[in-house]
Amino acid sequence: MEEMEKIIIDTDILIDLLRGIQRVVEKIRNFEIQNELGTTDINTFELYWGAYKSRYQEKEVASAKGVLNSLFLASTSEDVMETAAKLS
């Protein structure tokens, strides 16, 4: 069986997904058919940070948890960050 390609979703896309922006929702649905979707620990922090700042904190935190639970979490390390810096 062929391994699925992994795609990392950035904070801006996650926010649009949570806001229900139809073109983003459709694009994500299409991607998840053939790909494993994830995000990074930095994007996770940013999503929770915004949710906890929200006037509707309880609802926004729950929404963030919901979407994040459907994604894999790509954590980073110093070695990973050094390699990324070297490659860029």
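the 2nd protein, sequnce then structure:
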Amino acid sequence: MLFWAGLILIALGLCALAIDRALAHFIYDHVNARAHKFLDGITHYAKAGHWLAAAILALIVAAVFKRFHVKEAEGALMINYSLAFIASLTLGSAVLHVIKLVLGRRRPRDDMEMGLYGFVPFAFNLEYNSFPSGHALTICCVAVIFTCVWPMLWPVWFAIAFVLAVTRALLTAHFLSDVLIGAGIGLIAAREVLLLGFAGFAPLWF
């Protein structure tokens, strides 16, 4: 199911290319300073560095559990889910950064502030890094892993992922298509890592 959800998001992202620029200008003109401040305050919860630090901390805690022979079952699960997240993020980010480097899309702010818009293929310039969104990819990987740990709360995890991913477009840090395609890559990467490398740790509906 997640594979098809990821493909649908990618397809929607490709369709959104047709409205990206107009939508970004509309958002830029209509999101007021108060809303912008709120969105900017929560968007960083989707940042990869924070979740990588959390995964590493979980590995350290699990190692302590193992060393002192306490909560060994919980520690083993922490190790597997932390490694699954790190592997998912690594795989998804590898794909994402290849696309970023090859297609080289300018961010919406370049259009708003300098009138520069579009893709610059094969420029291999790290400044042209809008497409796809790394934040959207990261938070979707997080939602997938959290769904494995607490499967009954899956609507909550994906709702939070949706909100945090959309903040990237509402802040005009990314175009809508960047967000949709980044999210799609994240879902597929996390699903494939779990099913191929961590069999038995994911719900059957994945």
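Residues 150 and 182 are 24 Å apart (CA to CA). The chain has nine helices and no strands.
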